Amino acid sequence: MMCQLFPYAEPVTRWLEPEQQRAWRAYVRMQGELNAHLSRQMSVDSDISMADFAVLVQLTDTPDERVRVLELARYLHWEKSRISHHVARMEKRGLVRRENCRSDGRGSFVVLTDQGRSAIEAAAPAHAETVNKLVFDLLDDSEVQALREISEKIFTRLTTGECAAVIARCDADDPMEVVPEEGGCPEA
Amino acid sequence: MMCQLFPYAEPVTRWLEPEQQRAWRAYVRMQGELNAHLSRQMSVDSDISMADFAVLVQLTDTPDERVRVLELARYLHWEKSRISHHVARMEKRGLVRRENCRSDGRGSFVVLTDQGRSAIEAAAPAHAETVNKLVFDLLDDSEVQALREISEKIFTRLTTGECAAVIARCDADDPMEVVPEEGGCPEA
DNA sequence: CGGGAATAGTTGACACATCATCCACGTTCG
DNA sequence: CGAACGTGGATGATGTGTCAACTATTCCCG
């Protein structure tokens, strides 16, 4: 009824085409299984989780082995509160330690402990092996390249333009309602 | 020291090659962002979660709109306890309802309610639109095919052979220690 | 200098996933 | 029949992620 009057007010749904449908379902299931398997394997081979691992990688990648909390959040694309909770738990297990920042009274550092270092050193080889066995042993060079290109395209789409607005929570705390921009897809 | 004595007991770690490294990091970040974005978008556009959506899809795909709990678990590759908890929450919100199975006193069905049906019908179009915008608008046919083939390869690897043993929790409850098979990678 | 805004980080409540355990029912076989 | 074992499913404890406040500091600008 009112469709004719406001043709663009209620656009016909763009469903996925059959080929896309198949690709999407394959991707979704693969991704779910792969995540589950990597997590499980990580906690079998070591006593840290994938999340712990990610944090520890950032710390070991830093010369000082100390990183500001929001720095961590930005790099991992996590929310600051997630970092805060997670670091608290890791601290309780002795993997990291918090330290106050002298140059900025609000800030604090997350610092790698010896125990944290040995934990990641113990976990890394098995994890690499797992990734090889589950992924790269199955793919030839062109597939590796395709995986990378596809991933980069989607990632870029997600972190630029309108999508980035939502992520902006990470940088600015209160995006002031993030005006949805009426017309749909302005594209940066 | 003992490496020379037992050469295969402590194999040199297979790290990822640079190209693989890049592809892997791209994939991991993309996948994380994409999941986050899909979930967020789903709860903005409707009042159900991705998990709810997955369950409701299964129910609507069934002629009877009723599915046995473990059937659901197997299809979604979830654990039975996850299903159980989740269905409990969904029931509390009126999206589904439990019903006893007359032919098997232990079993129970999960049944779609009218409210559940309208919830998924309301959510589906926006979700399809999101997937199109974030994924398929960016990929040409060959990339869609590549995505599917890569996903299927990895998924197959994950659900057959030694890996499947761990998943077996889903079918058999107590795999009796799942003997790790000494030698590493026997391959089914 | 003083006072509001932005920034860094924490906290608590809640939703969710996992694990181990438990119970009710069914199957099998003596 | 009835004991032993397998199966379908529920439950509670615990760890983790998200959201919405909240605190404390610093920045900005008159």
From TrEMBL, chains A, B:
InterPro entries: HTH_MarR-typ, MarR/SlyA-like, WH-like_DNA-bd_sf, WH_DNA-bd_sf
Keyword DNA-binding among UniProt keywords: yes
GO MF annotation, one: DNA binding
Domain of life, source organism: Bacteria
Domain HTH marR-type: 20-156
Gene Ontology biological process: response to stress
Keywords of the record: DNA-binding
Keyword DNA-binding appears in the UniProt entry: yes
Name of the protein in question: DNA-binding transcriptional regulator, MarR family
Species this protein is from: Lentzea waywayandensis
